[in-house]
């Protein structure tokens, strides 16, 4: 798992991003109201509007153009990997900017939608504190990319595979720095459960991040890595700072779903790496 995440997503140091470790299986939050679980609400078990929106995202088979440009060399050894983009309801924004974005999302019926992201342990030798979707390399026993994504999500965040309604896959993308061909799998969580760190040696925390915090223009910008000669979309949602592969997929998904607000691509997000 560690090799796969290297170079895929942005890092946000714990002291800077305000992240807190998961304790006793709880979802880490900035305050007690940051996540309002809806799993006991029977009306949330059948949500065709949200599911249909996510299904259209999966059917797009799309991906960010700048990520599609990377191609493996003919002699490169490429490994398959998959990540799970798991959307559910019950999220509340942690930031003032996110709360300001709620009226925009209410018009679209998605004001309480969130997505699962995790942050790697700060003690890892490579890229400590990196932010990513749950996911990892495909193992021999995985009969599909979907199986790989669901297995990793369970191992990393305690997500029960049977609770996920898999809607499809986006275009596989090659990541040169790690030589993985990564397939994003789109999932709908009709009855969201608790997410938690399953292995503290690998993950520092797991979050259900409100879409409102991700679409808020004040929380968005760009991040540059001069050493890699790249500039990518970036998000600063208080508890996490995201750039690179994960931010690129999030940026694409928010646009494709029609949830995004206009944001300043010239605004810089400061991230340690």
From TrEMBL:
Keywords for the protein's UniProt record, in alphabetical order: Hydrolase, Magnesium, Manganese, Metal-binding
Transmembrane intervals: none
Pfam families linked: NUDIX (PF00293)
Annotated stretches, region: Disordered: 1-48
Keyword Metal-binding: yes
InterPro entries given in the database record: CoAse (IPR045121), NUDIX_hydrolase-like_dom_sf (IPR015797), NUDIX_hydrolase_dom (IPR000086)
GO molecular function: coenzyme A diphosphatase activity; metal ion binding
Protein name as catalogued: NUDIX domain-containing protein
